[in-house]
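1st attempt posting a full record on here, be nice pls
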Amino acid sequence: MAATLVDAAAGIRTHRGTVMLLAAPSIIGSLSLAPLEAAMLDLGMPYRRRFRLQASGEGALIHVMGPGQDSGPDYTGDPPRLILAGQVVEGLQGSSGDSRRGPLTTVAQAHALAQVLAPSGTRVRRMRPWLLSGNWLHSALDTTYDPVFTALRDLLVEEGSARVVSMPEVTTVELSNTPWIEELALDAISEKWSELDMEGRARALSHLMRPALARSTPSTARMEELGWHRVVGPDWDSDLASEIVRAAWLWKENPAATAAHTFVDSLLTTGRAPVRE
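the predicted structure (as tokens):
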């Protein structure tokens, strides 16, 4: 897979014409196109964005496939044409040496390609925390542990692109995906957080999250991320899970194409989801 993306980056970088960026008008499609657009803008390369399901024409193209496609990326040159499709890959190795596999989404692949194209690009770097968003939205976290999510999260921390903090340490949390959390209880814990020792913090957070244990959702893996491992980008007052909740509202309040364009434009200009009015 890495070789395919490197070859694609080389072909795209040397291409002298416009590159068509194509995806479905979904949140995953938007999250996949945004880092590619960021790289194009950082490099000053001409491109066109189009939200539609089917490709047309014979020119240079990056086509993001839907979640049902899992064959991995495919590239042909002259002109450069890249298909991005999800693929199950090895994420981590267990303590006994066994392979732990998980999904490498089109979002993660798009970020990888953007990094190869414009590793020092301002927009690419600003959008970097969203690398995790495809795996966050993937159903793998609802059924079992996702080693690819963990590996990507650790990568973001190691390179300084994000911090991992507990829920009370996030300034602005969207609670619609954690209905068992009482806002007043969270506010009270957040106010006292700096005064608590490690044992006190663990006890307070466990008490806050305990009602989720009686629910069928979220899964244990997702609950741990929501409570203990919130991903926060540089200068963010919110976290990635909350940002995704805000982004999802665009599709509830607007036609799909409008939502997709609005979301990508916001990511390109601020690196964040738009604030609901």
